[in-house]
Amino acid sequence: MGVLGIGGLFFRSHDPSARAAWYREHLGIEAGAEGEDTVWMQEAGMTVFAPVAGTSESFAHDQPFMLNLRVSDLDALTAHLEGAGIAVERRTEWETDYGRFVRIHDPEGLPIELWEVLE
């Protein structure tokens, strides 16, 4: 008996269909707006589940959470995103023993951390 993993992520949106389309187009996530029968099959791997202090500077205080996504070929993905006009934030301190990280924001301002795990 116990939890096997995260079964879904549901979050409020001003325009659910447009936001789901953005995730499909730019990140390749099979996102569906509320009421759409869409399931995103993921590769198995690490998931960090960690509450952070309300005073944390990890991401903007007006955002309730940051989405962290494991990716492959971070350089190719960031080139694709920048080619689409999406700002990509890089910091040297985000190159760690755990992997490489960059940050973007979805159309409604949700911070998204893209994480290329070091093998």
From TrEMBL:
Segment forming the signal sequence: none
- PROSITE patterns, per the entry: VOC
Question: Matching Gene3D superfamilies, A to Z?
Answer: 2,3-Dihydroxybiphenyl 1,2-Dioxygenase, domain 1
This protein's source sits in the domain of life called: Bacteria
All residue ranges annotated as the VOC domain in the record: 5-117
By what name is this protein known?
VOC domain-containing protein
Native organism is Plantibacter flavus
